[in-house]
Structure to design on (302 residues):
């Protein structure tokens, strides 16, 4: 009889533990769901974007259509500067925010950020930034062609440069970078002969991420006697200028996605020297303290 009572007692205790554990698991799941829903509420179901005509703005529009869980969300477009300001203010107050972001960009050197996973691949895979040149440049200016072809650097190099340029002029930061990376420069310029004032025009897209390599190249090329002009233009004009010979080269071709349409239009009339930077990326970006990892973690607006 005593053994029977003990058995009943043990069964009651085990049942209580299992029920408590089940309730705890249910509460945990509920908290997770409430947490992701509260992200949407906290950011007012809004993604902070940049200029209306930017490629990432169009990609984000597509994301809002492709992901059913983003039903009722909106993209707020204004300017890159406004996006960065809002991002900084949110981080200062450790508040949630979701921005349309890209790398290389100094915000990744300035803040602890992460990309949200993009299971549907709306933003595409990581890209390269390629150097393109006009046909005939190798024959006309073999030294310049060699330097342009050999020029390579990394995403972290670029982002550190861009962060430094917030406090100094681009030209000053470029000179400092060249001074501190003489081994790289030596590899790019090995065997290149000096010229005497040969004119060279480099076209570049109107982004700081493109001004950085262009200014580095300008310094290195001028150290070898070229007279370099940097011309900032819209990407469509940039490709057209290289194809027509109005500009000599550009280190600003984002491929295979961002500038794919321009590349297809002009690929027969330009020379693709390949990547000068690998691992460029676009997507939705959040501060690392936010407990979400994927676009699919977000919940539709009610």
């Amino acid at each position: 009889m005593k053994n029977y009572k003990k058995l009943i007692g043990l069964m009651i205790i085990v049942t209580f533990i299992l029920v408590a554990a089940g309730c705890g698991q249910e509460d945990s799941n509920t908290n997770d769901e409430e947490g992701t829903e509260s992200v949407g509420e906290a950011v007012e179901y809004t993604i902070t974007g940049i200029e209306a005509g930017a490629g990432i703005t169009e990609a984000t529009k597509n994301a809002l259509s492709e992901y059913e869980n983003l039903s009722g969300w909106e993209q707020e477009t204004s300017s890159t500067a406004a996006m960065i300001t809002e991002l900084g203010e949110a981080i200062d107050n450790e508040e949630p925010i979701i921005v349309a972001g890209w790398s290389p960009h100094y915000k990744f050197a300035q803040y602890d950020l992460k990309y949200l996973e993009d299971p549907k691949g709306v933003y595409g895979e990581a890209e390269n930034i390629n150097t393109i040149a006009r046909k005939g440049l190798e024959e006309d200016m073999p030294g310049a062609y060699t330097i342009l072809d050999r020029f390579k650097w990394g995403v972290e190099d670029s982002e550190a440069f861009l962060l430094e340029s917030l406090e100094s002029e681009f030209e000053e930061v470029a000179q400092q970078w060249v001074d501190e990376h003489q081994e790289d420069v030596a590899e790019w310029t090995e065997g290149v002969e000096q010229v005497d004032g040969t004119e060279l025009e480099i076209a570049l897209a109107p982004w700081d991420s493109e001004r950085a390599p262009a200014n580095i190249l300008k310094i290195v090329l001028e150290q070898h006697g070229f007279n370099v002009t940097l011309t900032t233009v819209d990407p469509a004009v940039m490709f057209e200028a290289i194809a027509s010979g109005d500009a000599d080269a550009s280190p600003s071709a984002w491929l295979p996605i961002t500038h794919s349409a321009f590349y297809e239009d002009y690929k027969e009339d330009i020379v693709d020297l390949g990547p000068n930077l690998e691992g460029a990326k676009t997507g939705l970006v959040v501060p690392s303290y936010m407990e979400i990892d994927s676009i699919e973690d977000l919940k539709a607006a009610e």
Remarks:
- Confidence is low (pLDDT under 50) at residues 1-35.
- The radius of gyration is 26 Å.
